[in-house]
Each structure stands twice: as structure tokens, then as C-alpha cells.
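agent> fetching stored inputs for the 2-acetamido-2-deoxy-beta-D-glucopyranose docking request
agent> found them:
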Amino acid sequence: MRMISPIIFTVSLLLSSACHAAVQEFCVADLTAPESPVGYSCKKPETLTVNDFVYSGLGVAGNTSNPLKAAVTLATVPEFPALNGLGISLARVDVAAGGGGAIHTHPRATEIVHVVSGEITAGFISGANKVYYKTLNKGDIIVIPQGLLHFQLNSGRIPAKLYVSFSSASPGLQILDNALFANNLPTELVAATTFLDIAQIKKLKGAFGGIG
Ligand SMILES: *[C@@H]1O[C@H](CO)[C@@H](O)[C@H](O)[C@H]1NC(C)=O
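agent> prediction call returned; pasting C-alpha cells
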């Protein structure tokens, strides 16, 4: 007991401070302290100013010169610590014409996509493999239920600008092409698990930076 009680004490301290958002109004993350399973511990309230609650990182378009022709600029806890414990976050997504088609999922969040400019064809695939997709224009929004595979393809001729909001301060992101073609999963295993041709897999590994 004597051995473990300091650990229990430390963990309960971490948990109680990380959970402050539930009993207090906010818990701006102290990124210098370790993250616990329920989030970061709080910066001391007396040190906070309005600037802790303002983030100016989304004003500039991301660089879309990449294989996905898309750039995601995040406002999640690491970029914007005030979101810690509040269950919400935002990202700016810039998509060049023809880009943004890469299918992906956010394991921990439902998403609302808001088209600020340009035209996208956006959709998701349900667990029953039914496809829901539509072409959206300026002002339109679409909701993507949590965890489902989805895409936002720029189907117009000009760059598209989107704001996407998430029902989590830490939505997570997994891009299917990166999962399959941007790592060292051996080509034979990719072929065996996807039924794709070896030549096509090698081409995609080349494009996405995978090896093996
Ligand atoms: C955009 O990214 C490409 C590829 O990494 C790079 O060559 C280019 O300089 C970048 N452009 C800007 C404006 O940063």
C-alpha cells in the first residue's frame, strides 16, 4: 500500500485537475505537464488572460501541394489549449481543384463540414455500407456521424475553403490511403488484405511514401 499510494495520489491529482472542465467553467491545458487519459491538467486560472481563449492560426490557407491536394489546419488542444475538456474543436481545410478525395475517418468525433467557398462533393459510408453523398456549395453544411469513412472532394474549378467542427477536442484522423500505402506494411500483405494488384500497390506506396 505504501508503495502504490503515491501513484494513486498522483493519478487522482491528475484526474481531478484534468476533469476540472466538468465541475468548473474551463480548464485551459497546461501542455508542459503530461497528458492523462482524460486530457491535460489545467493552467492556473489566475494566470489566464483573454488571449488563452483566442487562436489566430486559421487565417492562412494551408499548402495544398501534396498528393492529397488538401491541407488541414487544426485548432485542437495542442494548437488551442483552451479547448481542453470542452468537447469541441475546429479545423480549416483548404482543397485544390480535384483534391480532398482521400477517404478518412475521425474515430472520436462527429463532424460538421461548412463550405465557405468553392464546391465540394462530400459524403460518408455507413456501417451498413450505404453511401450518402452530395455536391455542396458556399453556405452548405453536412454532418458526418462519428467514426464513419468520409470524403470532401473538390469537384469545382477553384480552390475550396471549408471549416470543419468536431464534437471532441481531440477528434483523431486516419486517412485510409496513408494507413495502407504510407507505412511499411509489406506489399504482399497489402495485396492479401485489399485484393489490389501488386503493381497498383507499389505505385500508391510511391505516391504516399510507403516502403516494403
Ligand atoms: C508547399 O509545399 C511544397 C511541397 O512540400 C513546397 O515545395 C512549397 O514550397 C510549399 N509552398 C509554400 C508557399 O510554402
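agent> quick read of the result: Residues 1-21 have pLDDT under 50 and may be disordered.
agent> awaiting further instructions
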